[in-house]
Amino acid sequence: MFQKYLTYYFLLLILSILICSFILPFLFQKNIKFPQTSSDFIWPTPNYFTITSKYGPRKAPAGGASTFHSGIDIGAPEGSNILSICDGYISFTGFKGAGGYTIIVSAPPYQISYCHLNPEFEVSVTEFVYKGEKIAKVGPKYVKETSNNPYRDSTGNATNGATTGPHLHLTIRENNLAINPLQFFSNIIEQ
Question: Residue 3 and residue 76: Cα distance in Å, rounded?
């Protein structure tokens, strides 16, 4: 009886080795390269480079906006394309407080938040995106009423988070701490 179980365990061991050696690598053969240096990032808004609000302390531009800006605002017209700045996985799509309609790309150790987007998302949670791939469009200032959106302008119209108009808010977090995104784009933008 013991020999019968030993044979089953041996076959199970051989099968496990085959799966780990041949089948799993075949299933996960994407060439994933998470960012390591600033040269691994690209600018998210082709043809639009104006920084309308820098990282750090500021006077809040809209009700509900923070006096410490956790990212940068890039001025761009509604409908402008937004590209993934690096390879990564989509970990969130939805309405996220002051950021309005938001996509988060996870690329360990970084999490990149793209905020104030068009609510018709072009990517889905768990999807893998490549650096330079179009993931969204700059959203409108005004959006349809939703139950989780407390943001309004002075006339009571629902806004795309705490915003005064169309733009991309870009936050980069490293190990869950917000850092200045401009450090990754010094070759493109003067600081």
Answer: 71
